[in-house]
Amino acid sequence: MRSAPATKENGPGAMSAPTRQEQNKELQYGDALADVQAADKRITSAQARAALAGFALHVVAGAGGRSEFLAHRWGRSITLPDIEAVERWVQRVTGV
Q1: Considering the domain boundaries, does residue 39 fall inside one?
Q2: Number of domains in the chain
Q3: pLDDT tens, position by position, for the chain (96 residues)?
């Protein structure tokens, strides 16, 4: 019995449709990537707003491997525990 001729759909280089498990992994990684990108945007926006007020804002390694934020200007600094605290602080120092 002869097999069907090789085509684009069933030939040696053909890719099968992703399984449900593979689709779920892609969705999970896509969500995680979107979360990371959103966090990066929040940090970058806070850094830009702080810079307009004359402050430098850095992400530093804190206790237990968690990220903390260090803002400084004119030899004075403040450490902030998370992005929410950074955004409140930036709003306070910029008035915006």
Answers
A1: yes
A2: 1
A3: 555 555 555 555 556 666 766 656 665 566 777 777 778 899 999 999 999 999 999 999 877 888 899 999 999 999 999 999 999 999 999 887
2 is a domain residue? no
Comparing C-alpha atoms, which of 52, 86, 48, 54 is closest to residue 70? 86
Residues in the chain: 96
- The DSSP annotation for 25-75 comes to HHHHHHHHHHHHHHHHHHHHHHHHHHHHTT-EEEEEE-GGG-EEEEEEETT
Strand pairing class (56-61; 67-73)? antiparallel
Give the span between the Cα atoms of 4 and 11, in whole angstroms: 10
